[in-house]
Design a protein that fits this description.
mainly alpha, Arc Repressor Mutant, subunit A, two-stranded parallel ribbon, two-stranded antiparallel ribbon, 5 helices, 4 strands, globular
Length: 113
């Protein structure tokens, strides 16, 4: 699969994350059948700022709920601010109550064409 195709699949999943929830790079990679590609999901999130329709990349964090990609947002607090606006509490760069905020893409049924 070409990188562009993988990125588009990642974006399709990320667009399904409900407001006020978040998931991990690894959970997305696993859902897409490429469990060893969490880093590539991160690369997709890094490129997501240029994609239309928009991708809520702020809802994708590491497996522990840490805002590991925050340096790729316009300012050091932008990712946290976006999550806070959705009611997600972040402390010391980690999503609080991660167990309940975590959204598992395995519960998603993608439409097939």
């Amino acid at each position: 699969m070409a990188q562009a195709d993988f990125f588009e699949q990642v974006y399709a999943v990320v667009r399904q994350i409900p407001e006020g929830r978040a998931t991990s790079y690894g959970a997305i990679a696993k859902f897409l059948g490429s469990s060893q590609s969490a880093r590539m999901v991160g690369w997709a999130m890094n490129a997501a700022h240029q994609v239309h329709p928009p991708v809520p990349a702020h809802r994708v964090v590491n497996r522990n709920g840490m805002l590991s990609g925050k340096m790729h947002f316009g300012s050091p607090n932008a990712m946290e601010d976006l999550l806070l606006a959705e009611g997600v509490i972040v402390k010391d760069d980690c999503i609080q109550d991660w167990k309940n905020i975590f959204w598992d893409p395995e519960n998603l049924i993608l439409e097939t064409s």
